[in-house]
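Suppose you are handed a protein chain with no further information: no name, no annotation, nothing but its sequence. What can you learn? This example shows the usual starting point.
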Amino acid sequence: MTCLPGAFMAQAGMFADCTQADVDAWSVEHANSNRINVRAFLHWSARTRLTRRFELPAALSPGNAPMPDRQCTALLGQVLADHTTPLRSRVAAVILLLYAQPLSRITQFTIDDVVRDGDGVLLRLGDPPSPAPEPGATLLLEYLGQRTNMATATNRESRWLFPGRRAGQPLRSDTLSALVHALGVPATAGRAAAIRQHVLDLPAPIIATALGYHQVTTARLATEAGTTWPNYAPGDRSK
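A reasonable first move is to predict its three-dimensional structure. Written in structure tokens, the prediction is:
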């Protein structure tokens, strides 16, 4: 049986628990590795129904390295403040930059993943759902009433957060990628910066649970980022 390269297995832990977010994180950190073997393995695992189908993003070019945290924050502010660009594109970019979500996963969100909690708004990425800070929360609620591709009779009941043109289907990830890119947001570099900032701010297990990443992934990223949480152990520490 074909085996996934050791570096990927070390990051993803048990392959059965691997998510698209883990595949994307591996891609960011191993842009110059032997991606042909990994791509072949991912195709094989999907074809044999060991896993669902994963997408392996294109390698980062030397000029597209993960952006500095300050630049990521400035870009997020720019997207939130720019009321002249399409709302759909802005919402996708905000989810990417705030929560380090790959576009392939963002396209799978439904309107049920946007949760109203009293006066607050939560986004269901993991368990528990993550709070949406302002003005991102207002942007999400505004977008719920203005989703595109809802005009056709067969699509009016769509629950996809980003409905596609084809009835019952979400927007394609490459289409959403083009929309985000048009805002000046480099998807892979921006998401890499976001996840690194998260693991610097909070223990890796908490980030993994909240954002839907594998714990091995966030632990490795935390170590590489020089986190101050190396000895954190999950669980109830009050006893």
